[in-house]
Specification:
7-stranded mixed beta sheet, 8 helices, globular, binds S-adenosylmethionine
């Protein structure tokens, strides 16, 4: 992973800065969360099994709202994230709420250096794998941290939806990972488009076959794969609200995959 260090360093700075903005954003609605509202979407709430007393590892937890929401469902959570600011905030929110989740600051590729135990569930959601250059090494970390028979659950934006230049209504990105990062320097963030932030970010596109194959190559059996024709978040330009937690890019009336979910079991 040494060859990616400069990109990880840039992304760490980016996510530290985004954390400061996100924590006070309407998007993350901290007052409702502190009052007991879940930050989880209806997609994962419907698909997740009963988490009561399950040990759960959350990869790329940002500042921990989803982790603490999973704890509210009964899971015993450990969560990791690259950005020290995000982990600092997650710990302070946990302490404010008197909750138990453990938060560790590390690169997902170094998870095995920081965590030695195995879990009943490994969880990751929305906007995670685009920050990772190599899915085989990611899937290895996932599999290593699962107990035999343990569940990997993932809910993520569909790679097809990342192909478009929304403004110009055309395909502008590769579907397959070229190995090279895509660099962008846009203003604002998905949670606050007017925020005074403009920093370089480096990300990678991953095809569906790369995602599934990386897991299968690391001893995981895929037991569920679903595609949804909407995003549960209003984060893409040119999208319209169709229903509660359903935002769609209405491309000439055609349906497009916006989100996918999968379950895989450690063999
Ligand atoms: C879009 S957020 C996760 C979204 C989460 N579902 C939420 O809404 O809070 C992506 C997270 O991935 C983290 N991240 C990016 N690259 C990472 C890496 N290489 N290792 C660990 N975490 C990483 C970022 O710091 C950020 O907190």
């Amino acid at each position: 992973m040494k060859q990616y260090k400069a990109y990880f360093d840039a992304n760490e700075k980016l996510w530290n800065a985004k954390t400061d903005i996100h924590i006070d954003s309407a998007f993350y609605d901290m007052p409702s969360f502190l009052d007991g509202a879940t930050s989880l979407r209806k997609i994962e709430l419907e698909e997740l099994p009963d988490l009561k007393d399950k040990s759960l590892l959350h990869l790329q937890c940002h500042f921990g709202q989803d982790t603490l929401s999973l704890e509210r469902l009964g899971a015993r959570c450990t969560a990791i994230d690259l950005a020290p600011k995000a982990i600092e905030k997650a710990i302070s929110i946990r302490d404010q709420l008197g909750m138990q989740s453990q938060f560790i600051c590390c690169n997902v590729y170094d998870t095995d250096k920081h965590i030695k135990s195995t879990f009943d569930v490994v969880y990751t959601s929305y906007g995670t794998i685009i920050w990772l250059p190599d899915l085989n090494l990611w899937a290895k970390q996932v599999a290593q941290r699962l107990s035999k028979g343990g569940l990997f659950y993932m809910t993520e934006f569909h790679p097809v939806i990342f192909l478009f230049d929304w403004e110009k209504d055309k395909i502008a990105y590769n579907y397959f990972n070229t190995g090279e990062p895509i660099m962008e320097e846009t203003q604002g963030t998905y949670a606050d488009v007017d925020a005074p932030i403009q920093m370089k970010e480096y990300f990678w596109q991953h095809s569906i076959s790369d995602i599934l194959q990386s897991l299968m190559d690391n001893g995981m059996e895929i037991t569920m794969f679903k595609e949804y024709d909407y995003s549960p978040y209003d984060i893409f330009d040119q999208c319209r609200r169709r229903a509660e937690q359903e935002y769609i890019f209405d491309h000439q009336g055609m349906s497009l995959p916006h989100t996918f979910t999968l379950k895989a079991t450690k063999k």
